[in-house]
## 1
Amino acid sequence: MKRRAFIDRSSLSLSSLLISPKIFSTPMKNKTSKNTFQKSPYVLSTWNVPSATQEAGIALEQGANALDAAVLGVAVEEANILNTTVGIGGAPDRDGVVSLDACVMNHEGNGGAVVAVENIIHVAALAKDVMEHTPHVILASKGAQKFALDQGYTKENLLSESSKKAWLKWLEKGNYTPEINIENHDTIGMLCSDGDGNLSGACTTSGLAYKMHGRVGDSPILGSGLFIDNEVGSAVATGVGEEVLKTVGSFLVVELMRQGKTPQEACEIAIGRILSKQVGKPNFQVAYIATNKKGEIGAFSIQKGFSYTQHKNKKTNNVPSNSAF
Ligand code: SD4
């Protein structure tokens, strides 16, 4: 699953990427957890996203906090017009409308999310703005867009020519069931641990290709697409959101780690929970990645083909995940 970064990495830096007027203006509160074991920053991202992961890693190495780094990192894929599952260029719904979902969570247990947002590229930054500048956790659709415009975001056409072409081809069959296959699951979920050992994360997606208009998946739902507990660990999901929502997947992974499971064991049990409701081999993909306060990492998926990208000790590499089938 190769992608070329739309934005040249060198053009992105802590000082130059103005995805949100406020992205780096929030003072770090320096609230560290009681059990900080890991001080060397690291980043984990779903799928093969070296540019985004490295961007976040470099930001952490330069002293950014985990939340700022995650939002900055996923912004690389949100701006990548060739990535048909995130941000600009994302596959539209069955009516030809691109709508985006995103959420963030920080080490203090705060979160923000936006669902079904049209015409705004950097929805993870917008989710962070919801967290930091409203009394709410989730803003939806037109309300989220109005908030974005008030915050200084600009309206963009998110439907690329090639995504439009693919949608028109899909329409020829008149098949109004969202397609479910492992190729269209490339949500970027990113987990960051910063120099203070604090955990934060972001998850951003255009959702399932050709979904019903108004459909919202797991990715912007705290506890399903993403969950952070700075005392325990963090987890993020990708794949068919309906299955993750029904098992509150990322929360489950973190709660399993709280009970003493390693991140790997927790991801495997959470995938097992989904499989336990299925008869035979399912035809959909779900994958989790997770990390704990010791810096241990886990990843597991239903189907073969899932991988995650990590940035650790100044190196970025892609790691294949084990799978149930
Ligand atoms: C969703 N979990 O909307 C997302 C899909 C996904 O790449 O992972 N897309 O259900």
## 2
Amino acid sequence: MALPWASAQSKLYLTARITNMKAVYPGSFDPLTLGHLDIIRRASKIFESVELLISENPNKQGVLSIEERIKLVREAVKAEGLSNVTIQSYSGLTVDYAQEHGFKVLLRGMRAASDFEAELEMSQVNNFLSQLETVFLMTSPQYSFIRASRVWELLRLGADISSLVPVNVANYLKEHISGYLQQN
Ligand code: ADP
């Protein structure tokens, strides 16, 4: 028999947000994967808003341009109907961006123990620099093996990547990038 408070409590659990708190989710998103999108979707239910921040790294040239990444993320977020998710790019330190734009929380995803050390160190550096707190969401099991570099690896080998990335990203990569990758 259901306990009298159980349904009210689970409803509260599903709908409750950490109100008035916005989070910034930095990363390369080169390209956006289903793992990223899952983190964004779940975070959008927890935080008042989520800003996806495409970090421009002059020392790490991506495969996709920043404009292509922004376009693909924008389309995927729109297709998901996530109205409280925004997209920006930035070429400096994430902590500076966070401070300039009033973010106190940084969002990151964690796939496995192999992510832990780097993420721990980065969150400690960011906290040391600006008291930013990092909130981690654990990957959903079906996405735990997905990383952006694997998408490029598989595309180079001519494999089907459509179960690793959102539909619009898969279509774009097949149309514009896979031929180039296979020849280079
Ligand atoms: P990647 O590691 O795929 O190159 P990014 O550097 O853009 O991606 O990562 C941005 C954030 O997203 C990081 O916190 C990373 O751990 C997280 N992330 C990436 N892929 C996944 C996934 N499959 N599940 C959960 N989090 C992920």
